[in-house]
Amino acid sequence: MEKTAIQTGAVHARTKSTKKLNIAVAASLLTGALFWNLTSLTRLPHGISGGSGPKVNKTNFDSWCQIPEVASSIDDGLDSSSKFLEQDYIHKQVERLTAAVKVPTESFDDNDDVDIDPRWAPFDDLHATLQELFPLVHGKMKLDKVNKYGLIYTLTGSSEELKPVLFAAHQDVVPATSVEKWTHPPFEGHYDGTYLWGRGSVDCKNNLIGLYSVMEDLLSQNFTPKRTIVFAFGFDEETGGKRGAKTLGVELEKQWGQDNIAMILDEGGMGLDILGDYVYAMPGVAEKGYIDILLNLDVDGGHSSRPPPHTGIGIMSELLVELEAHPYTPRLTHDNPFRNLLECQAKYSPEQVEPWLAHALAANEDEGVLGARLAETREDDRFIFQTSQAADVIWGGKKVNALPESVHAEVNYRVSAHDAPLENIKEKAVGLLRPIAQKHGLSLNVFGTIEEPTVQSIGKLTFDLDQPLEPAPISSTSLDNLVWKLFSGTIRQVFENIPSLQGKTVVPVGDIMTGNTDTQHYWNLTRNIYRYGPGREGTRLNAHTVDERIEMLSHVEAMVFYYDLIRNFDQATDL
């Protein structure tokens, strides 16, 4: 998965944010300030009941964060999912995941097509490894290969009336750089008794091998589903999925049509955050949009001993400074999933929420005012509700005594839904930079439209764009949505019963992702897309960087979830 600062590291950023606030919150509570409202922020007993109920009243704390009942026990004659937590099974998974990590399926930004670029060859090795590790999957599921390395597995159910469920993962990993800094070689798959080390152990061969393993186990028990099960595994997610998931999405839509998949589960989300007696399970139910604006400035060159008032690099610098002087405004809108998370924490973990924030939410404070203050106090979380803008690439000039003739810059935007559509982002950038271009006598090429200056032109500024992607549709987390109700109820069923979290209440709440996954190519297939790799804090470390590793207990706990989720959806007839 494409990671961002919010989604990497040993501790989730938003958990760190709330922990930093503990002292301040405690002091505020001692003063008795705002006490009248905080008294209603009491915890509920562990037997929390869900239900659709009436529309949430934002001034009534009791109506906030309605969570589902624990999914019912499964009576289908299959083995209990608890077997995956046994040491023998953990060791089996170490062998399987090690075998996958050892295959260096790196994807690069400059990869060419699969039939041309020899760097795709390791995917042939991975496919051979998967076939050897999972003979039942390859013997009993229909396999379609799309664009050579994309994989679609189908286990056809007995009922044509039930919509299929689709499980996604990707086979590729980001390149392993700074190899000399790794504690263990990145493609060795070293297991130290707790963690398995290696590139892809977290992102996301963990998910890939977990899904294969669960299906291999089900098939070994002669599992014959009523509901069709589909696996879709891309091979270039780390570079946008244009050869992998994009082609898989086209094929899947040909096979199933639009909005005819009950649910898609892919990697992502914020795992499991423990706050006292409560565990917040945060699958991603939305993704921010994405756009790169490319700026190309062409001016006359010459000898550096006779420079103009501003060189091309100077002008480009002025353009970038102007953009950075006008950041986007944070807004905590009502449909932003992060707002629901805050309401859940205010209800179940009030000591973790600043008193002013609880009151602002209850008072339905202006979205902009609330967003601005929240951005100041929770810096790590601000880009969950604010469009980000980052000048990431710049180059120009070839020699120190020669004026640069061409200067290039790239500015990346991760777009919040309240700033969409992307046309707004383009218009703002052009509106800010046009006066500077005119001041310097530059002609403009604005995404293909030519604008000539009113004075003699000294050069040309060209606006272009790359990888435009609107914000993803938000998958509903209302209990009226029976798919979410069963999905989130299964999260409670599984994680309230695993030994590492026993005795705690799990609160499933949708989250928004600042990065993008392969699901960007699957929007037409379903309205229910969940991006979730369940993992406790500190169990999935250093994705995309040195010493990536996963706690193997966390790996098999995720398998418990996959196993019971497949079975629960197979028993449901109303979805």
TrEMBL record:
GO cellular component, one term: fungal-type vacuole lumen
Superkingdom of this protein's organism: Eukaryota
Keyword vocabulary terms for this entry: Hydrolase, Membrane, Metal-binding, Protease, Transmembrane, Transmembrane helix, Zinc
GO BP annotations listed: adaptive thermogenesis; amide biosynthetic process; amide catabolic process; amino acid metabolic process; lipid metabolic process; proteolysis involved in protein catabolic process
Active site, per annotation: D172, E237
Record-listed Zn(2+) 1 binding positions: D203, E238, H544
Transmembrane parts of this sequence: 21-39
GO MF annotations, alphabetized: hydrolase activity, acting on carbon-nitrogen (but not peptide) bonds; metal ion binding; metallocarboxypeptidase activity
InterPro entries, alphabetized: ArgE/DapE_CS, Pept_M20_carboxypep, Pept_M20A, Peptidase_M20, Peptidase_M20_dimer
Pfam families tied to this protein: M20_dimer, Peptidase_M20
UniProt domain Peptidase M20 dimerisation: residue ranges: 286-429
Signal peptide coordinates: none
Binding residues annotated for Zn(2+) 2, in chain numbering: H170, D203, D266
PANTHER family in UniProt: N-FATTY-ACYL-AMINO ACID SYNTHASE/HYDROLASE PM20D1, N-FATTY-ACYL-AMINO ACID SYNTHASE_HYDROLASE PM20D1
Stated family: Belongs to the peptidase M20A family.
Protein name: ArgE/DapE/ACY1/CPG2/YscS conserved site
